[in-house]
Amino acid sequence: SQPLFKSNLCPCTYSIRQVSKAALKEESKPKQESDESFYNSQKFEVLYCGKVTVNHKKAPSTLIDDCIDKFRQHEIERKRLRLLNGQRSSTEAPVEFIVGDNPLSSSLCEGSTRRRHASAPNNVQPSDADKNRTMLFQVGRFEVNLISPDTKSVVLEKNFKDISSCSQGVKQTDHFGFICRDVVESGPAQYVCYVFQCASESLVDEVMLTMKQAFTTAAALQSSKNQIKLCEACPMHDLHKLCERIEGLYPPRAKLAIQKYLSQLSDNEQVNIFERVQKMKPASDHEENELVILHLRQLCETKQKSHVHIGEVPQQNASGSTVTSDNSIAGRNKLDVLKNKARSSLTSSLENIFSRVCVCVVRLCLSLQWYCQQYHSTVTVFFSSGKSLSICCFSDHMDGRELLPLSPRALNQDQDPQVSPLSPEQGFGGEKGRRSPSDYRALWKKAIHQQILLIRMEKENQRLEASRDELHIRKMKLDYQEVCPCSKEVQALWDRKLSSPCRTKVQWDKEEIHSAVCQGVPKSRRGEVWLLLSQQYRLRHRLPQRQQPPETPYQDLLKQLTAQQHAILVDLGRTFPTHQYFSTQLGAGQLSLYNLLKAYSLLDTEVGYCQGISFVAGLLLLHMSEEQAFDTLKFLMYDLSIRRQYRPDMISLQIQMYQLSRLLHDYHRNLYTHLEEHEICPSLYAAPWFLTLFASQFPLGFVARIFDLLFVQGTEVIFKVALCLLSSHEGEILECDGFESIVDYLKSTIPTLTHSQMEEMITKAIEMDISKQLHAYEVEYHVLQDELSDAPPPSEDSDRLDKLEKANVQLKKQNMDLLEKLQVDAARLKIQTLESSVESFLSRESKMKHLIRSLEQEKASYQKTIERMRSSLPSDAMADVEMTQLKSSTNGKAKETCKKP
């Protein structure tokens, strides 16, 4: 498992908050998550401009523009001083932008400036314009990385939790930056703004959108995880919140926050902590704060043992002791883990602090004593018995660092006593007493000599390790099966040719070189042979001035930004994905390939970057360095005219497809007819062969052998190999009776060649000569194109017919429009009629409802009248009335019945 903290951080900066956060991260985050976030990331090419120290984590909108102005002022001032002094190094004050142990750039640093704004740039450190400042800005799932393609390493890594804001320039819209927390070894944490430039404003917009989406996704992932529930009343949790509040504050403000927390404790606890801290005699507020936190941690741990979490009820067992349930034990398990880690981390931190302080004071006192005896200065040093010592006074103008020899490493107390100028047997108050200045001088001289020896040995070890790594990378690059291996005599022949002092100035016999290449090329020296062949070709064939590539140095091209960065980054993972050198995501192979493709896209603005060039450049990188590969790529593109097939119009590729089709027609008529019957043109299967020079589908050993012939025979070898491949599989292709089966055989089966088949193909290609046919086919293609372009114009009748057809089409269109308009009008009229009838129905309905309501009211009034009359009549009269009503109703029904027909 990874250590909780990196060893190069100062132990003073550790806090309980950091321990708890690290524990939470370790327990809630899967182990493979970092790998997934590395591969599932977005990458952008940026230009590092510099960094600015700010006072707040939130910055104004004009911060990026202000930083750019500051950087420009620094650059102008540096150039002015350089011109005045006449030497470059004397004007530069090196201030390193250090991330971990890797300095990103050397910069100029301003002196202390007056604060103009709470978040204004306080300490500006622009990057060195003379160095390559182009970087790859990678946005992962939980962090952002800044990768240097030059050093092939990650120079900056920041988690999202440390980034407080990200903004784009208002005036400088192609610039952006983010503010993050930067923990320094001495003093509190500070906020730093890193500023970058992109190739265009649209790219900055894409970066900002990606950052926003990444922050949102990371927050969603964190919220979806199982959160550790902590008791709010826990003493350790209160201490954790205190550490959160004081983190990043200046010592005086942190001291006030701590005193406010102490006021909540009891009087005895406050007095106890105060007495303990005063016994330690802290020299500064920062040291006093750390001592108070240390004692608070001990107090909180003591309280935590007897603390009962919220919601937990203590239970009494048979013996009367209080025990907690299994749930409470499981609930406190997480917090106990955090407490133990905090205890172990802070204990080891304090031990390191005290040990370092003692060693530094011992050495400083020894140097001061020798300085006093030698020069009679005003410094007085008192040594006490044993290991204790005290320093009474120092001269105000004296700096202890000036008295100690500067060394790139600090002497470790665990080393051999002979290495350290002070061994345990040589104490200050021991048996031997004080030593003379000559003894101390001899001890220091011995230590210096041994230190120099150690440095030399370390440099030698580094050189040996670099040599071993280089051999390992070279072995990794050439990890492919060689086709047509050359004999020892041929290897000796190439060794003599490569060691010839005049190989770059004297032309050699063309037939001799051709014969040597046909016999074979040693794999270990293939890159040197390609360089030699390109130099010999340039001696025989000099390009006209207008056709030569620009003479821009490779390193200058790497310092620029390319607009093709997105396409290049996408194709990095597709180029030789199974090869070990290129398989690592943004490893040394992919970064070298990115540099090469980027440099060529900036050199050749007409072609830029086209798919297929990455395979050609990748094969060159397997056999030579970046700059050699870049020079060789220029030779292939310009001197051998391969760049024509990558032009945006693709005319050269069309000519090549026509030439291959004519070769099949003349040499393999049956195969040509079979492909034409199924409408399979050469562009369906042969375009990748020409664009990648067979590197995307065929074994590397076979492709490397094709490149050997390419340097001596030119692009003709591509046609010969393609024709040999198709002719050797002619019978199997003729047996395929469908479009899909033929295309699948051409794309999948043909590239799977055996070793003997590959050697046979190379031998046939060497013996074949089709240069005249290719030239004739190219002329034929241009003639056909001229005939098509010079075709006679159509006659007057055909023009008149075309005009009539156009007029007919227009009339039909007008008729359709009119018909549609009539239909629309009729529908609209019908709709209006229906709406008017609906309105009339609604009005009649409302009238009928009103009439019904009036009749019901009249009926109700009649009924009330009848009830009153019934109540006023006697019972006998009521019976007569009912009989009268019954008779009248019966007669009325009978009359109605008679009236019916």
Report on this model:
The protein is built from 30 helices and 14 strands. Helix 6 runs parallel beside helix 8 (285-305), helix 13 (526-540) runs parallel beside helix 23 (700-713) and helix 24 crosses helix 27. It is 57% helix and 9% strand. Among the domains are: 30-224, Pleckstrin-homology domain (PH domain)/Phosphotyrosine-binding domain (PTB) (PH-domain like, Roll), CATH 2.30.29; 551-789, Ypt/Rab-GAP domain of gyp1p, domain 3 (Cyclin A, domain 1); 803-868. The chain is flat, with a radius of gyration of 45 Å. The chain starts with 15 loop residues before the first helix and ends with a helix. Residues 1-39, 88-122, 315-335 and 341-432 have low confidence and may be disordered. The strands form four sheets. Strands 1, 4, 5, 6, 7, 8, 9 and 10 form an eight-stranded antiparallel β-sheet that branches. Strands 2-3 form a two-stranded antiparallel sheet. By secondary structure, it is of the alpha+beta class. The longest helix is centred in the C-terminal third of the chain and has 77 residues, at 796-872. Pfam families: DUF3350, PID, RabGAP-TBC. This is TBC1 domain family member 4. Residues 413-437, 872-901 are annotated as: Disordered.
Give the SSE map.
Blueprint: H1 16-28, H2 33-39, E1 42-54, H3 63-85, E2 95-99, E3 102-107, E4 123-126, E5 134-139, E6 143-148, E7 153-159, E8 163-168, E9 175-182, E10 190-197, H4 201-224, H5 235-246, H6 251-262, H7 267-280, H8 285-305, E11 315-316, E12 322-323, H9 326-375, E13 380-383, E14 389-393, H10 437-477, H11 488-498, H12 510-519, H13 526-540, H14 554-558, H15 565-572, H16 580-583, H17 588-603, H18 613-621, H19 626-639, H20 651-667, H21 669-677, H22 687-691, H23 700-713, H24 716-728, H25 730-735, H26 739-749, H27 755-767, H28 771-789, H29 796-872, H30 875-899
Antiparallel strand pairs: 1-4, 1-5, 1-10, 2-3, 5-6, 6-7, 8-9, 9-10, 11-12, 13-14
Helix pairs in contact: 1-9, 5-8, 6-8, 7-8, 12-23, 13-19, 13-23, 15-17, 17-18, 17-19, 18-19, 20-21, 20-28, 23-24, 23-27, 24-27
